[in-house]
Write a structure and sequence with these properties.
Layout lengths: L1 H25 L12 E7 L6 H20 L8 E7 L6 H11 L5 E3 L4 H13 L4 E3 L6 H4 L4 E3 L4 H16 L4 E7 L3 H16 L3 E8 L7 H9 L4 E3 L4 H13 L6 E3 L6 H7 L7 E4 L8 H13 L7 H20 L4 H9 L4 E3 L2 E3 L11 E7 L2 E8 L2
Parallel strand pairs: 1-2, 1-3, 3-4, 4-5, 6-7, 6-8, 8-9, 9-10
Antiparallel strand pairs: 10-13, 11-12, 13-14
Bound molecules: phenylalanine.
The site of phenylalanine has 16 residues, from α12.
């Protein structure tokens, strides 16, 4: 019986494969109208390499959302299939893997990345193929300026730098003179440094010195010596966690005692693992804190911890989760997985109630959301305040 049934199914299956292959020849990318089977959603993330914790957290949040959506019946009567590619935290890889997701796998939408430079690399490919891309957490304004298929579900660095961090330095740290230490290899770092400077100067603050490093450097002593000589009240390091932790260690070794603060790029358990007591007492801004929980967020924290061995979700996990839910919501409203239709539905997203708050996509395809300030306290991230736009 079994063999018989298998034989019976062979012909239609072969025909279906042939039909799909033929249809694929005429279609630029994405899927054909009236497709059945799973809905393929591509994801690119830094699962390994220098910013591995960004990609891992973001992927876990995204995966959890996809699993929950599927458990509740999927989208348009179909299950979502998350196809995840590791870009190794390396320039050059995002273009390769996103091309593969679109051309080989026929992904109908792309989720990613965390780091702005990597989102910026993949965005033109999605735009050209009319495949909607949602970055969960890239904050550089240029990402969504790439084109009308590119969205994000987080705030941008104009808000984080010129408003949140400039006010924090001025009002909470009571700093008048700040030194800025920028990673010139990162679009995120350069943008956040620029917006911070503009905002801080506009509020009457003074930038006493500005120095550069290259992400991945190991020795920051020469620049930190110059920063110490400028005698700042505080030092702003808009970088990623590995570099920020090493900078804090070396600053301490040089006797630089001014508080050091950063943006969302500091958020990783590795900041504390690498930096240890050198990062104690320092501060950063980010998108989400698991301890200030709304009802939605509390449920998310509980299901995330259950799914991932008791690990607490961070901003990337929460935004990854919301990015997948917002995509599913747009597909439902579009009644289709077709790129242009999903694009229009995404652009019309209004007050979507997620774990990171309400998401409304504005005319620049960005979201307006609150930020939080966290402080490193006893090796943990302690919630200090929420800053609303
Ligand atoms: N906003 C950062 C960027 O654009 C990435 C990031 C988001 C890092 C959230 C940590 C938390 O590069």
């Amino acid at each position: 019986m079994k063999i018989c049934r298998a034989r019976f199914n062979w012909m239609p299956a072969a025909l279906a494969v042939l039909a799909l292959a033929l249809a694929g020849c005429n279609q630029p990318a994405g899927e054909t109208a009236g497709s059945t089977g799973t809905i393929k959603v591509g994801e690119f993330a830094s699962l390994t390499g220098k910013e591995a914790t960004f990609g891992i957290s973001s992927h876990e949040g995204t995966l959890l959302a996809v699993e929950e959506i599927n458990a509740a019946g999927g989208v348009l009567g179909r299950k979502l299939e998350l196809l995840t590619e590791d870009d190794q935290s390396k320039a050059g890889e995002p273009a390769t893997v996103v091309n593969k997701l679109i051309a080989r796998d026929n992904a109908v939408a792309i989720l990613g990345e965390v780091a702005s430079s990597r989102s910026l690399e993949a965005a033109p490919i999605c735009q050209q193929n009319k495949i909607p891309m949602i970055s969960p957490s890239s904050t550089n304004p240029k990402v969504t300026e790439t084109g009308d298929y590119i969205f994000r579900v987080c705030f941008i660095d104009e808000f984080q730098g010129a408003f949140v961090l400039a006010n924090f330095a001025m009002n909470t740290l009571k700093a008048k003179k700040v030194a800025v230490f920028t990673d010139v290899k990162s679009d995120y770092s350069k943008g956040l440094a620029k917006y911070f400077k503009e905002g801080f100067i506009a509020k009457g603050g003074q930038i006493v010195t500005e120095l550069d490093f290259n992400g991945g450097d190991k020795d920051f002593k020469a620049q930190l010596t110059a920063i110490k000589a400028a005698n700042p009240d505080a030092v702003f390091v808009p970088g990623y966690y590995t570099d920020a932790a090493l900078i804090c260690i070396q600053a301490k070794q040089l006797g630089l005692t001014a508080p050091i603060f950063g943006g969302d790029g500091w958020e990783s358990d590795q900041l504390v693992k690498i930096g240890q007591e050198a990062v104690e007492g320092n501060y950063f801004s980010t998108h989400y804190a698991p301890d200030v929980a709304t009802e939605k967020s509390k449920n998310f924290v509980a299901s995330y911890q259950k799914r991932f061995n008791g690990k607490l979700p961070d901003a990337m996990a929460a935004l990854g989760y919301d990015s997948a839910l917002i995509l599913a919501d747009a597909m439902k409203r579009a009644g289709s997985t077709d790129g242009p239709k999903v694009r229009d539905a995404l652009a019309a997203t209004k007050d979507f109630d997620g774990v990171t708050g309400k998401t409304t996509i504005n005319e620049k395809r960005d979201a307006t959301k609150s930020a939080v300030i966290l402080q490193v306290k006893d090796g943990k991230f302690k919630y200090l305040e929420t800053v609303s736009p």
